[in-house]
Specification:
By secondary structure, this protein is α+β, with helices and mostly antiparallel strands. The protein contains five helices and ten strands. Helices cover 18% and strands 27% of the residues. Strands 1, 2, 3, 4, 5, 6, 7, 8, 9 and 10 form a ten-stranded mixed β-sheet that branches. The longest helix is centred in the first third of the chain and has 13 residues.
Length: 288
């Protein structure tokens, strides 16, 4: 038995998020189905980030266990032959049997795109949020700096009963303009449910002049979701990259020992309950 890690990119427009659920098709469901058919065994992937309905990804990560004799790096090529065009595997490789993408330290980067013009752009409509009002980029950059560091982000998330710790660390938060396109890039140790969309929504209010950059500090201190502006749509958001603090393949031997950690006893990766951090990350039974 081998554990395989895949880096997955997808256009989330047509999907009800990552995680399997009864009210619509999800990315996880599609991967399970196509992998099971390809490998001729029952396969269930476990994702590092359970993105929400309509959210895109360039670098989500998942793992699964398999007994296939297909070389790990060839699985991506074989799987891409059958996947729908809006999902593509960017990499597949073998990792050690005890590696779990949600049970280790990570650094995640999200990008949110806004088309800021008098008129919308049809070619950008699925991957950006259209805002026609003028936005002050310098003030938004000033406000973004106030989010850096370790804070209680209770004001900037949708409350979830299973999440009791709302403290997170943001390492970088930039605002870049290229013509009519604004790109907000945020990197952190983890994100709460809807956190990125509420953070960017707050910066939009700063850019419109409805709140001042220094108001960000007041909203943070309030630790109250009602103190922050409304959440903005999912379509502008992309999970850009996930970096792991540990090497998933560290200690992996080239030839697995049938009785060792890489042998049949490794078993299938388990869900182990709900994901405690889910910024734009899907929750079970969530509506599309």
């Amino acid at each position: 038995m081998k554990r395989i890690l895949m880096t997955v990119a997808y256009d989330g427009t047509a999907y009800c998020g990552w995680q399997m659920q009864p009210n619509g098709q999800t990315v996880e469901e599609v991967l399970d189905s196509h992998l099971s058919r390809l490998l001729k065994e029952d396969v269930h992937v476990i994702g590092a980030s359970r993105t929400d309905s309509g959210v895109h990804a360039r670098g989500n990560v998942c793992v699964f266990d398999t007994e296939t004799r297909i070389p790990p790096d060839k699985i991506a090529f074989a799987l891409n032959q059958s996947l729908p065009e809006d999902i593509r595997i960017q990499e597949s490789r073998r990792v050690r049997a005890d590696f779990h993408p949600r049970h280790c330290s990570t650094v995640k980067t999200y990008k949110y795109r806004i088309w800021n013009s008098r008129h919308g752009m049809p070619t950008e409509r699925l991957t950006s949020y259209f805002v026609f009002t003028p936005l002050d980029t310098d003030k938004m950059r000033e406000a973004a700096k106030r989010f850096l560091g370790t804070h209680d982000f209770a004001s900037f998330c949708t409350p979830q009963p299973q999440v009791t710790d709302t403290v997170r660390t943001l390492y970088d938060f930039t605002v870049e303009r290229d013509g009519d396109l604004l790109t907000f890039t945020v990197t952190g140790s983890g994100f709460l449910y809807h956190m990125v969309r509420i953070l960017v929504g707050t910066l939009l209010q700063v850019g419109r002049g409805m709140i001042a950059p220094e108001d960000v500090s007041r909203i943070l201190e309030a630790r109250d979701r009602h103190a922050a502006p409304a959440m903005i749509p999912a379509r502008g958001l992309t999970l850009w990259e996930i970096r792991f603090a540990e090497d998933p393949a560290e200690g992996l031997t080239s030839e697995p020992d049938e009785n060792g950690p890489d042998g049949p006893k490794a078993g299938r990766p388990e869900e182990n309950g709900p994901d405690p951090e889910a910024a734009e990350e899907d929750q079970s039974l969530k509506k599309a």
